[in-house]
């Protein structure tokens, strides 16, 4: 009897193993950036961890560079289950009807990455993920890129330089308001079309962190770059909710852990990737790089501050106020640890009223 039971258990495990080996669960992970960016490298790292740790139960197919879908299409593809995983920028959730993610687009809202991580990893981040559930989406992690820089074919030093320029933006109403507040004409365009849009003069300029600017070769078609750090670009790694909930619980645990580790990796490399990209852009010599001095940063901030108020209702006053409070706490903790720096050396946050 015992031998018969053992034998059937053995047959069962061989069959399960064989069917798992033959039919891994496929996770299609689509994204729009180059493989050698913070997001691209972390997606590949997640693939490695997920496949190794699940012992072949899952296969993660990473499709970079909008190979499968462009910005808007990829959200739809996720919802209908044509792909299982994405990492869209936080500026691309508005068209889904989840406008609160545009908190992350508010100009100068994060004076440093500590504030940003506390927003992402705390209550605000979790509440934002909660809003995705009704859209058939589950949020797994927040990934980093970095602060955005402005580029164009003409110098962007004072606010008046923006007047009348056509500037490409992601599909965020906050970014639209930001460009208008500077006097520019914002134009929504998919990321995969930005290089040709700039090359053909459909738009005059854009904003992005250095890693995206360099890997898309935007510096070849942009004569001027201003290091302004005026806004932030990060990502939410999201999955199709039904797909995720239908996975065996132990496999979901394995994948969650792989995602946590990929997130630590991603945040570690993000700044390095952006720093290296800046060095490469400078070395290419096609773009004049200008660092916005503190006195001008204050003027830009003043022009952009009304955008916070304008979006209080759409984003949620509570979210904005909570982000201000976190920024103030971080600043307080820093200044109690260090001797105060002269104001001109401090990165600029907009102070809440
Ligand atoms: C953009 O469209 O500019 C960015 O969201 C691209 C990205 O995913 O980093």
Could you explain how this protein is built, in words?
The chain is α/β, with parallel strands linked by helices. It has one domain: Bacterial extracellular solute-binding protein, family 7 (D-Maltodextrin-Binding Protein, domain 2, 3-Layer(aba) Sandwich). It is built from 13 helices and eleven strands. It has a six-stranded mixed β-sheet. Helix 4 packs across helix 13 and helix 6 crosses helix 11. The protein is globular and about 60 Å long. The N terminus is likely disordered. (2S)-2-hydroxybutanedioic acid binds next to loops.
Task: Summarize it.
The chain is of the alpha/beta class and 353 residues long. Helices cover 48% and strands 16% of the residues. The chain has a six-stranded mixed β-sheet with strand order 7-6-8-5-9-11.
**SSE series:** HEHEHEHHEEEHEHEHEEHHEHHH
> Could you give the order of strands across the largest sheet?
7-6-8-5-9-11
Mean pLDDT: 92
Helical fraction: 40-55%
> The biggest beta sheet, please?
6 strands, mixed
How many distinct helices?
Answer: 13
CATH homology group: Bacterial extracellular solute-binding protein, family 7
Structural class comes to: alpha/beta
- Count of separate structural domains: 1
Task: Report the C-alpha radius of gyration, rounded.
Answer: 22 Å
Measure the end-to-end span.
Answer: 78 Å
The CATH architecture can be given as 3-Layer(aba) Sandwich
């Amino acid at each position: 009897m015992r031998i018969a039971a053992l034998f059937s258990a053995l047959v069962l495990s061989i069959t399960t193993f064989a069917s798992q080996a033959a039919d891994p669960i496929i996770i299609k992970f689509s994204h729009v950036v180059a493989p050698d960016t913070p997001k691209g490298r972390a997606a590949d790292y997640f693939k490695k961890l997920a496949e190794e740790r699940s012992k072949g139960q899952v296969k993660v197919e990473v499709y970079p560079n909008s190979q499968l879908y462009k910005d808007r299409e990829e959200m739809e593809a996720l919802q209908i289950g044509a792909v299982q995983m994405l990492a869209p920028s936080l500026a691309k959730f508005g068209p889904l009807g989840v406008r609160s993610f545009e908190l992350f687009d508010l100009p100068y809202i994060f004076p440093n990455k500590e504030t940003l991580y506390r927003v992402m990893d705390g209550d605000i981040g979790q509440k934002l993920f909660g809003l995705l559930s009704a859209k058939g989406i589950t949020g797994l992690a927040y990934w980093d890129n970095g602060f955005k820089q402005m580029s164009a074919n003409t110098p962007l030093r004072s606010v008046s330089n923006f007047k009348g320029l056509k500037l490409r933006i992601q599909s965020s109403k906050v970014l639209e308001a930001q460009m208008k507040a500077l006097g520019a004409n914002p134009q929504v365009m998919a990321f995969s079309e930005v290089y040709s849009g700039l090359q053909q003069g459909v738009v005059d300029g854009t904003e992005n962190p250095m890693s995206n600017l360099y890997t898309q070769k935007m510096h070849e078609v942009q004569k001027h770059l201003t290091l302004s750090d005026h806004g932030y670009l990060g990502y939410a790694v999201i999955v199709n909710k039904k797909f995720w909930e239908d996975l065996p619980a132990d496999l979901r645990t394995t994948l969650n852990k792989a995602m946590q580790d990929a997130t630590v990796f991603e945040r570690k490399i993000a700044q390095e990737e952006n720093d290296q990209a800046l060095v490469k852009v400078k070395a290419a010599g096609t773009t004049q790089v200008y660092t916005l001095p503190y006195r001008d940063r204050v003027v830009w901030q003043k022009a952009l501050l009304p955008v916070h108020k304008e979006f209080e209702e759409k984003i949620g006053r509570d979210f904005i106020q909570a982000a201000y409070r976190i920024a103030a706490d971080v600043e307080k903790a820093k200044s109690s640890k260090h001797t105060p720096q002269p104001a001109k050396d401090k990165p600029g946050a907009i102070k809440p009223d």
